[in-house]
Amino acid sequence: MIHEVDEALRRVLRGGALPDSTGEVVFEAPTRDWAARRNAPTLNAYLYDIREEVARRERGAINVRDASGMVVRRRQPPRWFRLSYLLTAWTTRPQDEHRLLSAALGCLLPHEILPAAALPEALTALELSLPMTVGVPPAESRSIADIWSALGGELKPSLDVVVTVPFPVSPSYEVAPPVTEAVTKVKGVDGVPGDAQPRVLRSVPGAGPGAGGAPRGGPRGHRLLRSVAR
Question: What is the pLDDT of residues 65-107, one digit of tens each?
């Protein structure tokens, strides 16, 4: 899932900050050796932190229904993670780097979620909005200066870009078919079986409410259990 988010960011930045193939968008660590090899305007989106968005964690199972509303499968809810990118601009002159970083900020700010037009097929299939923040101060446990020290480079102006994306926990699993018939026996007051014949309850597709306001049965109220004597 991470590489799909990389591709979505690449499309947004290339379309807004680097039109007409005037530069590159890369995701490598911006070390001294890497910087020395740059010979074209470059936006570097370095993924430096991955953390779970604990506040969005859900419990229980999610029902997957067919066209008639019947539950056919269940799956665990996804876990959401924050992908934090250190976005920097690289050219031969500081003024040009500032212009490039400003263009990147201008094309990202209008979007509170990753735009649908930039999503690869795998992200589009999720049918979910992927929140994105730009330039929001990072958590106190992170320090941009410490990141640059770890990379062995000099401190540069940068934007903190965070995308929140779901990760599936496990594949879905099938559920047992719905109960469509049940047999009941009625006993007397003293516990001795009565003379009444066993009653069979059958599911009747498309039946409406029974007499006297009997409740509907089955998923989404489109079936009714009908009593039949044997």
Answer: 677 767 666 667 778 999 999 999 999 899 999 999 999 999 9
Tokens of 157: 């102006």
Nearest to 8 by CA among 100, 107, 149: 107
122 and 20 together in one domain: yes
Both 151 and 198 in one domain: the answer is no
CA 182 centroid distance within chain: 40
| Residues β-bridged to residue 201 | 182, 227
Indicate the residue among 173, 201, 220 that finishes a domain. Answer: 173
Report DSSP letters for 108-133, one per residue.
Answer: HTT-SB--GGG--HHHHTT----BEE
- Alpha carbon distances (Å) from 210 to 185, 186, 224: 21, 21, 8
Tokens, residue 27: 């995701």
Question: How is the beta sheet containing 181-184 ordered, strand by strand?
Answer: 181-184, 199-205, 223-229
**18-31 pLDDT, tens digit each:** 877 778 899 999 99
From residue 65, alpha-carbon distances to 49, 56, 68, 70, 164 in Å are: 36, 23, 8, 5, 27
Cβ atoms of residues 25 and 10 within 8 Å: yes
